């Protein structure tokens, strides 16, 4: 346990000196992955994705170690017991977690670390010294969210309903004053992306100037 606290301290200490990490949260299907992939494409090398662990099965096209570390429930539980995770949560029947190593790997490259995590993760990260910028991505409406999730064609009916129920709850919680630094309604994708870039402009400039000096 002591070594895991040391690890967490190292991550948080690095976060206080390097660029601030960015937490993207918001309902499943709101467009977090779409937006973060756009950022990583436009600003190649500036951002690094914190690759979470999950017990859910990979979707077609998802790559182990890139999109997620896909693990068994037993492995995940062992990792939690070892203290490998800064935060972890159960979402829609599967476990998800951000490992200290995932954040450290990004910070070691002096990149802006992006975490794509659910509301429980946000609440847990708030108790650490990671000090990220918290951004919530919202859909224009729950109806549009449902349509996007259906069109994505990744969920069973049961999983879809669980995600919609969580979405309704999380949209309510996200109104809590001070919980997020910014809320972006992802209606028109380009517009939402430009807002995201605006919010991160200072961090982007800071890392760009460091890389060019
Ligand atoms: N502005 C938009 N207009 C229309 N479709 C969109 C928009 N943004 C994202 N989408 C589509 O909606 C679907 C959900 O987006 P995405 O997978 O990025 O959501 P997510 O928030 O990362 O979901 P999850 O939390 O489940 O990983 C995708 O098929 C994506 O192409
Ligand atoms: N608390 C955490 N939530 C996470 C993490 N990685 C992803 N997520 C969230 O889970 C849901 C579902 O993701 P999906 O890929 O199965 O659609 C979504 O809201 C993610 O933000 C994590 O490490 N911790």
From TrEMBL:
A Gene Ontology molecular function term of the record: ATP binding
Keywords for this protein: ATP-binding, Cytoplasm, Kinase, Nucleotide-binding, Transferase
Localization terms from the record: Cytoplasm, Cytosol; Photoreceptor inner segment
UniProt cross-references to Gene3D superfamilies, sorted A to Z: P-loop containing nucleotide triphosphate hydrolases
Main location: cytoplasm
Reactions accelerated catalytically: GMP + ATP = GDP + ADP
InterPro entries noted in UniProt: GK/Ca_channel_bsu (IPR008145), Guanylate_kin-like_dom (IPR008144), Guanylate_kinase (IPR017665), Guanylate_kinase_CS (IPR020590), P-loop_NTPase (IPR027417)
EC number: 2.7.4.8
Protein family: Belongs to the guanylate kinase family.
Assembly: Monomer. Interacts with RD3.
Protein name: Guanylate kinase
Organism of derivation: Xenopus laevis
């Amino acid at each position: 346990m002591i070594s895991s606290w040391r690890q967490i301290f190292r991550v948080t200490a690095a976060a206080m000196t390097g660029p601030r990490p960015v937490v993207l949260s918001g309902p499943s299907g709101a467009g977090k992955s779409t937006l973060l992939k756009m950022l990583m494409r436009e600003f190649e090398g500036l951002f690094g994705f914190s690759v979470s662990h999950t017990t859910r099965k990979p979707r077609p096209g998802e790559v182990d170690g890139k999109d997620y570390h896909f693990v068994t429930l037993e492995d995940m539980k062992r990792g939690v017991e070892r203290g490998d995770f800064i935060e972890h949560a159960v979402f829609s029947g599967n476990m998800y977690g951000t490992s200290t190593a995932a954040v450290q790997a990004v910070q070691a490259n002096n990149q802006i670390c992006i975490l794509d995590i659910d509301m429980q993760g946000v609440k847990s990260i708030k108790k650490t010294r990671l000090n990220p910028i918290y951004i919530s991505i919202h859909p224009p409406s729950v109806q549009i969210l449902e349509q996007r999730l259906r069109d994505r064609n990744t969920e069973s009916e049961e999983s879809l309903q669980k995600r919609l129920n969580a979405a309704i709850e999380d949209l309510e919680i996200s109104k809590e004053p001070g919980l997020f630094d910014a809320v972006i309604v992802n209606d028109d994708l380009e517009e939402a992306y430009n807002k995201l870039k605006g919010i991160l402009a200072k961090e982007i400039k800071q890392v760009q100037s460091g890389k060019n000096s």
